[in-house]
Amino acid sequence: MKKQKGFILFSLSMVLFTNAFAQDAKPLSQQMAATVMSIWKDSFALEGGKPNWSYDLGVILKGFEGIWENTADPLYFNYIQKMMDYYVGEDGSIKGYKMEEHNIDFVNNGKLLLLLYRVTGKEKYWKACKMLREQLHTQPRTNEGGFWHKKVYPNQMWLDGLYMGEPFYAEYAMLSHEDTAFNDIANQFIWMEKHARDPKTGLLYHAWDESKTEKWSNPKTGTSPNFWARAMGWYGDALVDVLDNFPVNHPKRQALIDILNRYVNAIQKVQDSKTGLWYDILDMPTRKGNYVEASASCQFVYAIAKGVRMGYLPADKITIAKKGYEGIVKTFIKNEGRVNLYGTVKVSGLGGKNYRDGSFEYYMSEPVIVNDPKGMGAFLLASNEMEMQQTLSVGKGKTVLLDYYYNHETKQDMTGATIQYHYVWDEKDNNGYSLLGHVFNKFGVQTTSNTEAVTAAALKKADIYFIIDPDWPKETADPKYIVQPQIDIIYNWVKAGGVLMLFANDSGNVEFKHYNDLTEKFGIHFNENRRNLVVGSDFKVGTFKIPANDPIFKTARQVYMKEICTEKITAPAKSFMNDNGDVIIAVSKVGKGTVFAVGDPWLYNEYLDGRKLPLYLENYKAAEDLVKWLVEQVPAKKK
Hints:
Layout: H1 2-20, H2 28-39, H3 55-71, H4 74-87, H5 110-120, H6 123-138, E1 156-158, H7 159-176, H8 181-196, E2 207-209, H9 229-242, H10 253-269, H11 294-309, H12 318-332, E3 333-335, E4 339-341, E5 344-345, H13 360-365, E6 368-369, H14 373-388, E7 399-403, E8 409-412, E9 418-421, H15 434-442, E10 446-450, H16 456-460, E11 464-468, H17 484-495, E12 499-503, H18 513-519, E13 524-526, E14 543-545, E15 558-560, E16 567-569, E17 573-579, E18 582-590, E19 593-598, H19 619-633
Parallel strand pairs: 7-10, 7-11, 11-12, 12-19
Antiparallel strand pairs: 1-2, 3-4, 5-6, 8-9, 13-16, 14-15, 17-18, 18-19
């Protein structure tokens, strides 16, 4: 009953938030992004100064990345690219970057360069990333191995630095196959917690000085004097972001998840019960001058909401994030012709020329401002997560299994290693399914893959099985065909209630014979033809109009498919999209199960991410509609 009451209160609060900003029906993430773009149109300069390669920009642009993934609106990707291109030259040089300073803050923006490289394939972004990676190779370290925060701060690890360096480090290591780097990455968190965590409260001090000689450091422990909220926010956000690219079977992965759980238990205890927010100095809520702070509150909401969504935290921890987000919107968000964020402390550090001693009085002396980029970026991240909370229940507990066996094309990546590509989940370029995977994820469906010939055991773990464009000799020297024993396994699985999604391709680009041996079991035959031959940007040739009462595509009205094969159907299959007598999409019901078939890879990034198609073509909406429909076809499990 308590959980139901909490959900009702959260739903009510979201309605109130929507009504409060009814003049702009867009989600708050997009409203805040509009404010960002109105302040920083062409480059990133603070307070009228010169454009600066600042970590603040990276925080904001990670928020933009999340909006782009949630909407496929090219406005957000293009803004990321424009802002990064201001700094990055064709030779990979970065304007304003000085490696010799060994300032770990400078590494943070590398996450956006990795995104741009993975999406566009432009070499300049990879060159810039290699330079940032080189900084980490030479970054000064403590005796134990922890990164110094800056060269000018010898022997010091700061919580902030974990956010600035580790998520980039992990993604770069994943892409460049630096397997041993993950020990180093995990150790940075382990050592930081070991030295900075207070055993009584579980909170982490802002920084730790190994030498114990810095004026702000405790002579016995080396820690700074106080628990600064945003520092802890950086640390938590770093944890959930690093786990995105941390190997699932790595022996230290669980250590990171355990740290995250201890971390959340600690910040839960200091969450203000009335507002749902967190104070700038976390453990002194009643001390005169202390105040609830926006950026840290947003960071905590993001870390908790993402941690729950990804399964790192217990599900009931989401109530902390919901209460926190409600407080953020109520306390800090104001619509004043545009959406503004109040309540972010401009900066707080330790040491330096104008010496910062880490005292409570010091932290209270720093100005609290409106529309600080760190706060705005943290708000975008928190909002993206909380907006997804409204859709996660659609497919909660469901799993989609993408075949990597019958479709297994390979190539050499930038390191020379052989990798699988073409219609795989983690591929962000035109040929990948990263955005379709994100759509599944934001509707609560777990995405997995299968690298072996399909078995009954593998399908038993899946609710939806996705086969795409099986190989033939033109594509690989050793194609793996779907043969009768596997056909029987798939057929029996569907009959028992499985949902099968079959994407083909046009003639000359897919193996038809064995694929049709499977599809014909369900009354579907892919024709060896090629329809919708689009020349250049003649998008009309590939456009299909969808009627308003379509049972699958309930919101998408015009979609795009080019160079497709048509289908010939017999009972029990039925046509669900027909154009001039040609079957484009077919659905078959067999036993308790469902089969969806289309003669095109269709929903890959090139025609989903908004960067190529005109905005009137709604393939992203079609992907959302299809995922929701597929989930609806999964039979309810008996309790």
